[in-house]
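Batch manifest, entry 17 of 40.
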Amino acid sequence: MIIDGVVVLYNPDKEVVENIKSYQSFLRKLFVIDNSTSYNEEVINKLKEYPNIVYVSLDGNKGIAKALKEGLELSIKDKADFTLTMDQDSIFPSEKLDVVKTYLEKYSSEYAIIGLNFNSDSKEAKLVEEQFLLTSGNFINNKDYQKISGFKEELFIDWVDFDLCEQFYSIGKKVGYINEVSLLHTMGNPESHNLLGKKVTALNHPLIRYYYRYRNGLYLYKRNKKFFKKKYKHDIIIDRIKILLYEKNKHAKFKMIRRGRKDAKRNILGPYKEEK
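Output type: structure tokens
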């Protein structure tokens, strides 16, 4: 079993090197795709010291979809069986690698993506089928990936991973995560709150992310309403409530949401452009 990996850099700090060290050693090759707008020479030079790391610069922010697509294509050319996709701020539980390999060997004919749990201490051993998986901690079956169109560059960022899951389900493949193996990962700038006796998390994403999340969500929902309905309804209802109740800069965020939905209705994709 040959496993390569892809990690996308975006203006990384020193901690990223330590994160990458948590999984770099067990990969045949790790393709580090740099999507940064400003380069950290110290981080880049440190990563280049590892013989199995292949550093690729995209010369600016071309979007996470393009970066992941580039990495998957390099892994396929390298004739790897699986590609591990990681975010730069994720830490892999390398001590559980043998458990992961057991699941890959057992379920790879049925599952196109076998991912990891997130920030969990569950000990129950099982593979949990899901409709959607986030990018980080996913082992993608390269043979299955070659049967679909792959990561869509025009989405740029957000819902890129959900789109990939829909593509795999469309060819009869499943996606799921290993319950007892958990990735350490941080999304946005999370803050926990109590809403009617239940714990809710406000993610406090950077402003531009609200544009992409709501644009791509509506765009994909229009394409396949049955598949994306539950996820889309959650975002337009629950997420808006959390923004309204708990997040700062509400006016600017809702403005970005409106712009994103407007562009989705006009089928305008790609990187965000200021309106003239």
